Amino acid sequence: MTADQGPLRPTRDPRVTLDDLVEVLLNKGAVLHLDLIVAVADIPLIGVNIRAALAGMETMLEFGMMRNWDEATRAWAERSARRRGIDLREGESAVCRMSGGHLLTGGVYTGWRPGTVHLTDRRLVVQRDEPREILWQAELGDVRAVRLEPERTVGGEERLRLRVALADGTEELLSAQEPEKLHARLTEACAGRLDAAFPFTPAVEEERLLEGHLWFHEPRRGGPLWRGGQGRLIGSALVWKSPVDSRPALVVRTADITAVEWSAERSPTGDGGVFTLRTADGGEVRLAAGDPETWMRKLDVSRPSLPHPLPLKTG
Amino acid sequence: MPLTVDEKSLKHGVLSLVLTLTEVIQEALERQALRRINGGDLTLEESERLADALLELDEALEQIKEDHGITTSVADLHRGLDEVVDDVVDKLINPQRWAEEAGQ
Questions:
Q1: Fold of the A94-200 domain
Q2: In whole angstroms, what is the distance from residue A100 CA to residue A176 CA?
Q3: How does pLDDT run across A144-164, given as a tens digit for each residue?
Q4: Which of A149, B12, B38, B101 has a 20 to 30 A CA-CA distance from A299?
Q5: What is the ipTM of this complex?
């Protein structure tokens, strides 16, 4: 510090945030009295009389308002509050808990439902505390396999999810705050009962030949529709998935592809044209990409079963 | 002062707006919870339950933001809202600003 500086002065950050404003409003409390008459031709027809008070509960109590209600609410919560965590069965003991969620599928709605993942020595439970509901649960005896699986979220980040395969052949996807820890504990808890290999070989583990944005001309009841999504070409298949779908809308085995044709049609990419995959069963898949040549070349390379490279029709 | 909601992707913009407002409510709840806990009315068990529930809410919000990749846009929008509030409050408590603005 240099000598020519004056004495230190207290400063105050004068900036106000919305959070501060709301806090002051709730701490002080606000009272609104409104009297209103609606009249037509100077004849009063409707009367409105509103008395409203808005304040933080602590302020309300200070002014002697809602005290009985506050006590009644808390007493009721107290009575029904012997319910922290999950309801354990007799002889069951908790192993660990962490925040997480369960992917609800199968119904009209597909989406993550957040809650808390509880692992006991008998069950795996995803439960939401407020309002209380068991979102999903499974007996550990029914768990056949567990696997950590990277998933690309809508925001484009990689997240580890926990896939659980059950004895009845269904699979569920769980999210957890510490997926590795949950995986380890779950494996421990199911010691010896888990199948060594996950029953369904994941397509993700195959080498990716090409991955990128791809348009798919999806056949729909109301006529085909161009949809943008992520295309991925692996050794055995071409997979296309829209970011809003939970599973791939298109899976074409490369062995089934008999021809790849390019035509100069209008497509979402502008003048990039459309390339069409013809499959052995007479099907036709229309796709468009920013660089169709790369996709077509890679698609060609990925079909080792063919005796000779198919002629690429260009233009 | 205009708030910029990313019009290029409306879904992200709307989701960011909703989450920003949720954050404001969450912040208000947290501050009121602190007041109640400090007020000494609540039992220890009640305080703990309250803290747990708020923590769970906080984690759920963080997760939603990260999942949709809107952590930064929510932060930007929040800051934008704060600036608007700061501006308005500044004008309200400093009458000389009115004169300045009228003079312009």
A1: PH-domain like (2.30.29)
A2: 4
A3: 888 888 877 666 667 788 888
A4: A149
A5: 0.79
